[in-house]
Each structure stands twice: as structure tokens, then as C-alpha cells.
Amino acid sequence: xxxxAAILFGTVSFCALxxxxxxxxxxxxxxxxxxxxxxxxxxxxxQLEHTIPLGDVRGRIDHMTADLARGRxxxxxxxxxxxxxxxxxxxxxxxxxxxxxxxxxxxxxxTQDRLFVANGGDGRVQVYDxxxxxxxxxxxxxxxxxxxxxxxxxxxxxxYGSGAIAVIDPATLKRLADxxxxxxxxxxxxxxxxxxxxxxxxxxxxxxxxxxxxxQEVGRWGIAGATANFPLALDExxxxxxxxxxxxxxxxxxxxxxxxxLVRVETCRDADDVFVDHRRHRIxxxxxxxxxxxxxxxxxxxxxxxxxxxxARTGLYxxxxxxxxxxxxxxxxxxAELRVYRPR
Length: 344
Fold this sequence. Notes:
The protein contains one helix and 28 strands. The chain has 344 residues and is mainly beta.
């Protein structure tokens, strides 16, 4: 999403590897006891646990992903042309990768232990070893490489250009296929059976449902009069797709079997990420107006709204750690930071 806000993320690929990964939530929680707690920044549903300074980082911050086994989070610093590597246990940036051209989407592939970074500027997807971050290779997609996801088969999917999703083998880095769309893809989510992909295509005024066997559109959903649908989240257990619109500021739930609109409500402005908290049956919406909206998943009634900072629209909910991370850009003399919220 070149020079525009992205989603998210959505979705993150994790792998609980061995003892470290399986015990990371406990180790992480213990480590937090030694970090300073925020005295403010809380509502009944969310508490600001601590902040991690990003340093002298200017401008927009885009997507995030995580390497759960190592307790790391990767943050795409779009306007700086860099990706920050954050150690959650240490609570600090431990490395910064540079030389990118508007890095937007990031995804970690645990099986291959590789980090994929999509560049909106030159359209390349650059690949790094997840341990020492040595360059592994790159894939040229042409223009506006944006959101990156891993599908159930372990393949890497990258939205790019005026309307396509590239399918990439994470081991060989070969481009296996291109699924053509009606417009540039923003957020997209893959069904667990790998048969369908739900794609926000705001320039085509639709949510496209793509069949992965043929790469063809099998459904077309939306709301009349609502535009700029950037983020979405999928809850297969409830058969619901949650889509946030910016004009007007709405959150809508669609039935994933029929495409029927179930409910729509007003939400915060400039939404960029939506997450489902399955444990509490909640929805989190992170918005550029400087707010996190917390809603009940069933009827989308708003439970609370937490103020953040203008432009803080990129988030990442890590279910394995039960934490909501929000990237906060520099503003009015305050430096950029990563905020860690604990749901409650």
C-alpha cells in the first residue's frame, strides 16, 4: 500500500518450537516484572504494560510480524527505509535492518527461519535469514509490494501492483503463481483449508473472495456507500469476516458462508488493523486518529476506547503472549515507540 495506510496483519505466522517457544509466554510475563509499568493509558479492557523506544525514527510505521520462538518482533519503518528487530524480553531494539525502499509488509516463515520484507517503492520482496539476518535473496514483483502472509501450505503470499497476489515458495523463492484481482489488494486472510482468500480491494469498492485452486473470484461483498476498506480479520469458528471501512468509519461483520452483512457499527477513524481476541470474544481496531476501539465480537457493541497518539494505526495481536502491540510514530517532539498492552 504505497504511500497509504496498510492493514494487517493481520495475521502472523508463528511456530512454537521446543522448550523456549512453549514456555515463552511464562518467561515473557516474568520478564515484564522488571520493566517499568505505565501509570496511565488504560481502560477496563486494556492496560498499557510498558513501552519500547524505537529511537530516532521519523514518519510512518507500517506492518509488524513476530518470531515467537526467539521472542522477537519486526517493525517496518516505512519512511526510514528500515526494519526494527525488537527483543520483547529485553524490551529494546536489538538490530535495525536498512536499505529498503518503503518497507511495508513483513512476514516471518518459521519452517525456513526466514524474514520476508515487501518494498512498496521498487516492488521487491527481500528475504533474510531469521538468525543472523544474512540476505538470502529477493523476488522482483514490479511495483507496490505490500501485505505478506503465509498460507496453510506454508507458501508466502504477497499483494502487489494494481491487482495481484504472488504465490512464492519460501524455500526456493520461486514465484509459483499470480492470482489476478480487480484492484490493489490491501488486507487479506486465508481460510484454514486453503480454499479461499478474503481480500480487501478498496479501489474496486469490494471485498473479493478468491478460490485458490483457480485463482478466480468466487464472491464479491461490500456495503453500499462505504469505501476505503483497508483492514480485515477472520474468525472461522464463528463464520465471520470483520472488515473496517474508513469512509465512513465503520466496522462490519459478514457471514463467511453466504457473504451476508450481519451487523455494522461506527468505529474509530483511519482504521488500519483489526484483530480477533478469541479468548475474550473481542475485536480490537487500531486507528490513525489515535485510538484503539474494543468491541464485543457478538454484536459489535463498543466496550471501550483507549487514546494512543495520532498516526498510531499499526498493531499486532499476539495470541500466544496475549498481548496487543501498537506502533506509535514520532509526533510533536515525542519519539516513536512500541506500546505493549495487556488485555484484561
